[in-house]
């Protein structure tokens, strides 16, 4: 006769180890440094020097990363800085990044409040506007005005 079937749950087979693939990064990541954030800043665009962009980023507080400070990134250096393909690695204090984020969040909040106020002040009886931020009140237990 035939061979007795063994339930699948009873079979012992090794699970294949799953190795997820992710493409390699085109730019190396520096070793983390407490209190600093890193970013690649464009120094050239379409083969032309982009001095305005570099100047703006330096005024924001970004500083070029010295190749000597990060030996793990010894791929390309220009004047002692880490630069690859028209991008220069820069760093900035984490507190400065947080302050910048707060500034732009507050600015966006003020702009949204101004837009909402301006929008709600325009009154056209043919196109009524509703402020969804207001609360509503209902009567009764089921919310439909009945006590059922």
Entry keywords:
five-stranded antiparallel sheet, two-stranded antiparallel sheet, 148 residues, alpha+beta, flat
Give a topology summary:
Layout: E1 36-42, E2 44-45, E3 48-49, H1 51-60, E4 63-64, E5 77-78, E6 81-84, E7 87-93, H2 94-121
Antiparallel strand pairs: 1-7, 2-3, 4-7, 5-6, 6-7
Summarize, please.
This protein has 148 residues and is α+β, with helices and mostly antiparallel strands. It has helices at 51-60, 94-121, and strands spanning 36-42, 44-45, 48-49, 63-64, 77-78, 81-84, 87-93.
In words, what does this structure look like?
It is flat, with a radius of gyration of 30 Å. It is built from two helices and seven strands; from the N terminus they run E-E-E-H-E-E-E-E-H. 26% of the residues lie in helices and 18% in strands. With 148 residues, the chain is an alpha+beta fold. Strands 1, 4, 5, 6 and 7 form a five-stranded antiparallel beta sheet that branches. The protein has a two-stranded antiparallel ribbon with strand order 2-3. It has a domain at 36-94.
Which series of helices and strands comes N to C?
Answer: EEEHEEEEH
Report the principal-axis shape. flat
Total count of strands: 7
Q: Rg to the nearest angstrom?
A: 30 Å
* End-to-end C-alpha gap: 69 Å
The helix content is: 25-40%
Structural class: alpha+beta
Query: How many helices in DSSP terms?
Result: 2
Strand proportion, as a percent range, falls in: 15-25%
Largest sheet: 5 strands, antiparallel
What is the average per-residue confidence, as pLDDT, rounded to a whole number?
Answer: 79
In the predicted model, the low-confidence regions spanning at least 5 consecutive residues are none
């Amino acid at each position: 006769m035939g061979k007795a079937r063994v339930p699948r749950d009873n079979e012992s087979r090794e699970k294949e180890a799953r190795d997820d693939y992710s493409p390699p990064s085109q730019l190396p990541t520096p070793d983390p440094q407490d209190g600093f954030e890193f970013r690649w800043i464009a120094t050239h665009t379409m083969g032309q020097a982009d001095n305005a962009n570099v100047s703006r980023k330096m005024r924001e507080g970004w500083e070029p990363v010295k190749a000597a400070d990060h030996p793990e990134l010894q791929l390309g250096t220009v004047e002692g800085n880490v630069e690859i393909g028209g991008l220069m690695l820069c760093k900035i204090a984490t507190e400065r990044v947080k302050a910048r984020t707060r500034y732009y969040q507050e600015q966006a909040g003020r702009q949204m409040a101004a837009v909402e106020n301006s929008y709600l002040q325009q009154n056209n009886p043919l196109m009524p506007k509703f402020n969804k931020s207001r609360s509503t009140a209902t009567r009764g237990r089921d919310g439909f005005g009945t006590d059922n």
